[in-house]
Design a protein that fits this description.
With about 220 residues, the chain is an alpha+beta fold. The protein has one helix spanning about 1-30; strands spanning about 50-55, 65-70, 70-80, 90-95, 110, 125, 140-145, 155, 170-175, 185, 190-195, 195-200, 210-215.
Length: about 220
């Protein structure tokens, strides 16, 4: 009888302790979600077009789409870094999976390519065909659908920002968070592809970028 009572009390203790740990883990995950801010310190709106580019111009121009690779027209378009720092770059919409007013770090999202109407309708969302493969399969192109493994990304705060006064970020590709795929996230970095600076899941130094609001 005493043994049965002891076992029951011990089981209750285990259940309460486990629930407490799970609750703490959930809260910690939620606490890591921070509102993303642009280069001027303003909150970045979810599902609204922005330019993105490096923190300082000496690191190259802003990110854009290109319809030409190796002197050949392509569709869907590829995502590249503009060599000229004077250009505005492309307009991209970072869209969280789940309704939110502002963009958040550590949340699954897709990146709308913002392709010009009628130019190439296959250029839908940023896509990495195979993050574990070698180039060109691990380079960012476009053409996937919303909330698919190949279009699943997350924004994270850059661990060692170039300027402490500017909010800078890095991008991660997390296929398994939106479907089947490797059970890990891949840092997105710059890869030199025949002289063209492209974004890729190469696992090298992450590409540090900032958000710029569109000029009116």
């Amino acid at each position: 009888m005493k043994s049965s009572l002891f076992d029951a009390i011990f089981l209750l203790f285990v259940i309460i302790t486990t629930q407490s740990i799970c609750s703490t883990t959930t809260n910690a995950a939620s606490a890591s979600e921070n509102v993303v801010k642009d280069a001027t310190g303003k909150k970045v709106l979810n599902d609204v077009p922005y330019h993105i580019g490096p923190v300082i111009s000496t690191m190259g121009g802003r990110i854009k789409l290109t319809d030409t690779m190796n002197n050949k027209k392509i569709c869907p378009f590829n995502v590249v870094q503009d060599p000229a720092d004077v250009n505005l770059g492309g307009q991209f919409m970072f869209t969280l999976i789940g309704k939110q007013k502002y963009l958040l770090t550590s949340r699954n999202l897709a990146i709308d390519s913002g392709y010009p109407k009628g130019a190439c309708e296959g250029s839908t969302f940023w896509t990495i065909p195979d993050a574990e493969a070698k180039p060109p399969s691990n380079l960012i192109t476009t053409g996937g659908g919303f909330e698919e493994a190949v279009t699943c990304f997350r924004i994270q705060e850059y661990p060692k920002p170039t300027s402490p006064k500017v909010h800078s970020y890095m991008l991660q590709h997390c296929p398994s968070f939106c479907g089947a795929g490797p059970q890990t996230c891949f840092n997105v970095s710059i890869y030199l592809d025949k002289g063209v600076r492209r974004l890729a899941a190469t696992g090298d130094t992450p590409f540090e970028f900032v958000f710029h609001k569109l000029s009116k």
